[in-house]
Every structure is written in structure tokens, then in C-alpha cells.
Amino acid sequence: MSLIELKDLTKSYGPVQALNRLNLTVPKGSLYGLLGPNGSGKTTTLRIISTLLAPDSGKAIVSGLDVLARSKDVRRVIGYVAQEVAIDKILTGRELLELHGDLYHLPFTQRNMRIEELIERLDMAHWIDRRSGSYSGGMKRRLDLATGLLHKPDLLILDEPTVGLDIESRSVVWGLLKELHSQGVTILLSSHYLEEVDSLADQIAIIDHGKVIAEGSPGKLKEKLGRARITLKVNEFSNPDEAERVKNYVLSVEGVKKVIINSSQGFSLNLFVETSEIISTLRKTLKEEGFDIFALSESRPSLDDVYLETTGKTIMDAELAISGTRNLKNEAKESMR
User: Which SS3 state, helix, strand or coil, does residue 203 take?
Assistant: First the structure.
């Protein structure tokens, strides 16, 4: 049974298309991750689901409710924690939680009991009665998460929940999300941290340029590539043609399932194989063909490999490209002033 259904969502900001007929189904009770670089459309998707933004076209259904037609009812069943923490610096953390509890129309006794539960669970007791203007980033993020959980939502939506957090705060957030998931709460989180999505999510969707390009469990998506990854660099690599020539040869070696050219920080080949025992064979055949091996190493397939296979670039490359585009746009605006 699905809790979220997104059908052909499109959204543009002027000439920039954020979503391009995006389709997504999130099963009830799942911890579902949206993975992609900043600027891929993740935040726009979450804001539409959270009733904060209207799509240009398409439909969004949450718990059987049309997000546009029944936005007030949708807000009752969701908790939303935005990427940017918005906290009143004058109030204490407890006062902020009490305010949010009142906004949710929680009965007084129920509100206070729930606040105490969250203070204990998120380890906030020793600073919750200080003014929030003195809080660190990790404290603010824990408090923000608590406000989203006050009314015990059926769906918790998190936009980059651990960005910029210290290790302790990150561990607390991860632990709580795993606990909520085990209790049957549906969680939808966006992230560009590969290890976070890999560790937490039982299902993921990779988003690129406003559309879903791959879906499935992290394990199955990686397994499609192969059971092991071998990274190969040879001294012949200096341009795409030479990398393509080596790729074509390596594909002819028995046991090599897939080969992807990785142009990030110099050319290398990612070989996906069923067993790492092929390394000795590769080393021998490459030398026999006259290729000068610079590096040959083994690892497990990663979600970045999945992203590279589907888009032709790593997430880091994608973020750098998006950042470069933004800088060029800003420079153009400045030159017109």
C-alpha cells in the first residue's frame, strides 16, 4: 500500500525546470530516500508533498489525499523538517516546543508529556531551557526534528536532516529515524550523503535533472552492477578515446560484467565483476596487451557507482556542475547591473 503517489510532477522557476514529469510511489511504513546532488529537484519535491509549493502540473497524493485540494488535511498527517532550520532565538527550546504543540492543537497534558518524551529521546535535557539563540547547529537540528514529531505524524519528511551536523548529533538523528521506522512510521528523506541513504533507507530513488532515473533497494541497485568493483588506471589514459579503447578491451575479458568510464579527477575504469579473483587475470592480460598499469584496486559497488552508471557522472561532479552554473548566472546578473 502506497502512502505517497506523485504523477508527472513538473515545476519551473522562470527558465529553470526543477521537476520534469517526476513519478514516484512511496510504500506505507518504508524509510524512503531521495538521493541526488543539490539542485536535482529533491527539495522542490518535498515542498510540494508538504503543501508548501504548488506544482505547475501533475498530481501529488498523500495518504489518499490530494495535496492541492485538501492541503489542510494533508498537514495533519505529516511532519516536515526543512533543510534550513528556522528557530526563534529569544525563546527557549521548551517554549518553542510548547508553541508548536499549541499550533497543532494538542491537549495541554498530552502536549507536555510528548515534549518530555522527545527531550529525553533526543538527549536535549541539559540545554532545552536555554534560549535557542545560543544553540549549536546540532542542537537546533534536534529541536527542529522534535517539532516535526510532536503530533506523531504518519509521515515524517526530512530535507537533508544531518547536513552540517557533528558526529554525536548525527548519531542521535540516525538512531531516532531507525527507531521510528521500526515502529511503522513512514519516513521520506532527501540527502546527497551516500552513506546516509545507504545505511538508513530500505528503498531509494535517484533523482537527476528533476526526474527519477533509478529506483529500488540500495542492495539491489548495487547488485545489478556486480558483486565486486575493480578500479583500474593505466598510464595510457589522457583522453576519452584512449579510455574507451581500454574499456573495449577489458569488456572482452571473461568475468567482467560491466565497465564504466569515470572521468572525475582523471580517467579511470570501474569494472564490475562477480568475483574479485579476476584481478590476477586482468593484471596478466593487460600486461600482455602492452598496457602499463598505474593502479588496480578492489572495493564493493557503491550508490555513487549506480549514479555514475545511470548519468555518466558522479554526484560530486554533478554538484560541481550545478555550482558552476549558479556562479555563471550570478556573474551574468552582476554584469547587467
Answer: strand
